[in-house]
Amino acid sequence: MTIKSGVAGFLIAVLTVTTCLMYTTSQQPVSAACAALPTDRGTVTQSASLTAGTYTIWSRIRTATPANNAYYMNIDNAGSNLLCGATMGGTTLTANTWTWVKYATPVVVSSNSAGAFTVTMAGKDDNVEVDRIIMTGDSSCVPDNTAVAIGGVNYYGENCASSDTIAPTVTVTAPANAASVSGATTNITGTTTDTSSITSIAAYLDGSTTAAATDATPTTGAYVIPLSLNGLSVGSHTLVVKATDSVGNVGSSSQVTFTIPDSTAPTVSVVASSSITQTSATVTWTTNEAADSQVEYGTTTAYGSTSTLATTKVTTHSVNVSGLTAGTLYHYRVKSKDAASNLTMSPDATLTTLAPAADTTAPTVSITAPIANAILNGPVTLTATASDAVGVTGVQFQLNGVNLNAEVTSSPFSTSWNTTTTANGIYNLTAIARDAAGNTKPSTSVSVTVTNSTFRAEDINMSGRVDIADFSILSANFNRTTAQLTNPRADIDSSGKVDIADFARLANKFNQ
């Protein structure tokens, strides 16, 4: 509080009442309020809460004229007084120099009168300035002129203002509340404020009364506390920072919660394969913590196939891999990811599926052309269809039990037969199918008649000329099968039926 009243006034800045360290009952307050002080040079009034004890009063005074060095003081309340009309100062001073002046008589406060008092100060001499009054219970303390900044204001005589009961204030800026903290160490940072000096700043974890870490150079303002995270369990932890000042007051920050994340991948062990068949296998392994399950597999270390992810977190894993090829070497590795998404993969391993069972089943085969009882002449094409559970590797056509041309080893299965190299007559055609295991099976034989002559096939009536008579025979047998023909030569192309193709051939040779 600062008041200055004109040239003839005086300045009162701060009144400080400190803890009483001495107590006597030799003096008692008077049961009446003091008379009013003169007001011509200004007055200042402040309140003071006084406990029982004996107080020494110090005033910090400055004056331009050394002989002008005093002001008046009352300390009273409605029912009693401790000091009335006292002349404070009164000592020759050095001009324009702030000087601490002690009031000669200590003030005694009994236990009966302790409580709230009004301190009134009034000007006595011109141009007297007072910027602080200290009422201290330590009679041996002499205030100094060292400036102590508190809340942006310089205070003097703090060495005698020993009634500091205010705990330091402490804030934590890092880690932020609910933050995730990782690494070997982290810095706890924040600020402290206090009216006294700070002697200790320490961090406490999870409600412990033992400090986990301390600031090596504690002071007011910013602090840094390196905290080792080694040994802290994964999960949530609480943090409180406490600061202790020079008189033993302890202030605590608000509690901060932080989390140590799980950054360690599961450990995979005992990887094995079992229940191996021709087309499937079971892969098993264990992890040191609950994790999901998946297997990568393939015929090379590039794998290429992946089992369906089993999302249930377990420590004993089992995955069935299916759709494999019999008698094949497979590479595989297992993958497990824990609840924090830390992923681990095993080294490469191999398994070989069982060899396929012996193939004892013969393929099936049938001749599709020519049809049974067909009358053939000239070059013709023989065709067959064949199938097998594993695969057909070849079809051998036979004429009356003798191989006709080489074995046909790929579909479509067909071969040619020039009937002009064969005598006219009835022949049996068969096709024998073979699979990779060597199983063979013949088709049902197809009986055909070879009727090659000097007459062209289009000369149906063998008159020596393709004419209208041949056209009439062809028309009479149109759309009939071989068994229905009135003249077997009407099926010119031996397709098994008289159709437009036969008319086309006849028209091409007509009148020749």
Structure report:
The chain is mainly beta and 512 residues long. The protein has 5 domains: 146 residues, Jelly Rolls (Sandwich), CATH 2.60.120; 92 residues, Immunoglobulin-like; 85 residues, Immunoglobulins (Immunoglobulin-like); 87 residues, Immunoglobulins (Immunoglobulin-like); 42 residues, no CATH class. Helices cover 4% and strands 46% of the residues. The strands form 8 sheets. Strands 22, 23, 24, 25, 26, 27 and 28 form a 7-stranded antiparallel sheet that branches. Strands 1, 2, 4, 7, 8 and 10 form a 6-stranded mixed sheet that branches. Strand 23 and strand 24 form a beta hairpin. The longest helix has 10 residues. It is rod-shaped, with a radius of gyration of 59 Å. The relative contact order is 0.07. The N terminus is likely disordered.
